[in-house]
Amino acid sequence: MTMLSRTPVRAPVNRARGYSRPLQYLALAGYVVFLGFPLLFLLATSVKTPQELQSGDSSLLPRSFNLNNFGDAIQKANLVQAAGNSLYVAVLTTVIVTVISLPAAYALSRFRTKLRGVATGWILLSQVFPFILIVIPVFLVLKQVGLVNHPLGLVLVYTVWCLPFALWMLRGYVTAVPVELEEAGAMDGASRLRVLWSIVLPLLAPGLVATSLFTFISSWNEFFFALVLIQDPHLQTLPLTLARFVGAEGQVQLGQLAAASLLATIPSLVFFLLIQRRLTSGLMSGAVKG
Length: 290
Prior knowledge:
globular; MetI-like fold
């Protein structure tokens, strides 16, 4: 009996896969350059001399480094006090929004009540109206309670402003947590509070971090409400101080303004670096905890 030899047939090589990884890295590099170029341009402007800036030279690399812009900006613009005001408002707003939105998001996701539709409608409706339509009613209400020209007035406004989006974000994270994990914990004899603390809360850590980051950056960079509600120069936040920054003879010193703007971005970057590990942590990291 004759045995027929069979030649193994090789599957066609998909050459597109060989080029996909370099293209992905190229696209990522382009995206990083696109995001980082304004920061690099700001850094270059902050170390240029006044003569170089007045000459109209738009080159990225400075001819000589002038670090005096940072010291002059801190002294003239009173950045330390303004940064303290912004930090107070942003941190307090972040804490209040997180404390309120976490149990509210859990209730909206787990309990089906009549208020669920009302709350969802409020979340969506609050994102429709532009800020300029509500700034006058907000100003009048805060004036009646004595919170105009007061940091707590900004905290109250920022809390109401950031709460709907934070609640919407956390609701999605809570919905992604399987209900079976809570039921398994209850079957093992854990109380409701223990289930929430040991199982649900660790799984919501990335959501809490993302919500806190959004709230902090939004409160730190907000300008419009602060412009309307704060008139005292000693209570101005950092965006107001940068917007009203002028040098000698009423002219804007670009070098000092760039240095002040660069210093203003440092707290946001530090806050992001402190919590960025939690953003990349696994959603199921808390499922194995007792």
